[in-house]
Specification:
The chain is mainly beta. The chain has a single domain (about 1-94), classed as Cathepsin D, subunit A, domain 1 (Beta Barrel), CATH 2.40.70. The chain has 1 helix and 8 strands. It has one helix spanning about 85-94; strands spanning about 1-5, 15-20, 25, 40-45, 50-55, 55-60, 70-75, 85. A 3-stranded mixed β-sheet has the order 1-2-8. A 3-stranded mixed β-sheet has the order 3-7-6, with no helix packed on it. A two-stranded antiparallel ribbon has the order 4-5. It is globular, with a radius of gyration of 13 Å.
């Protein structure tokens, strides 16, 4: 199940929370810190469409009250219009 975090910005800056086993993913290359170009994965979505993730790294997010945090192991998926946070992956890391 995927839940949406609403954003005032219509530029694809909102994050969707995924409760299924998955990976964090974003198409916003400018959000990544130091991309690991070696990582390459094929991602299959619920509609059976397949996209290629080109690399992984961490992304800085802004939390409540202006606090900043990093999410690690985020896949960069070119042309992805939304951003996905995997609840299971967050829970695994504590």
């Amino acid at each position: 199940m995927i839940e949406t975090i609403k954003s005032k910005d219509e530029n694809g800056d909102q994050w969707y929370f995924d409760t299924e086993p998955s990976n964090h993913m974003s198409g916003k290359m400018s959000w990544f810190i130091d991309l690991n170009q070696i990582v390459k994965r094929r991602i299959r979505f619920a509609d059976n469409s397949v996209v290629n993730a080109k690399c992984t790294d961490k992304v800085m997010i802004q939390r409540k009250k202006g606090k900043e945090s990093y999410i690690s192991e985020v896949l960069y998926v070119p042309k992805m219009k939304s951003n996905l946070i995997c609840i299971g992956q967050l829970l695994k890391k504590g």
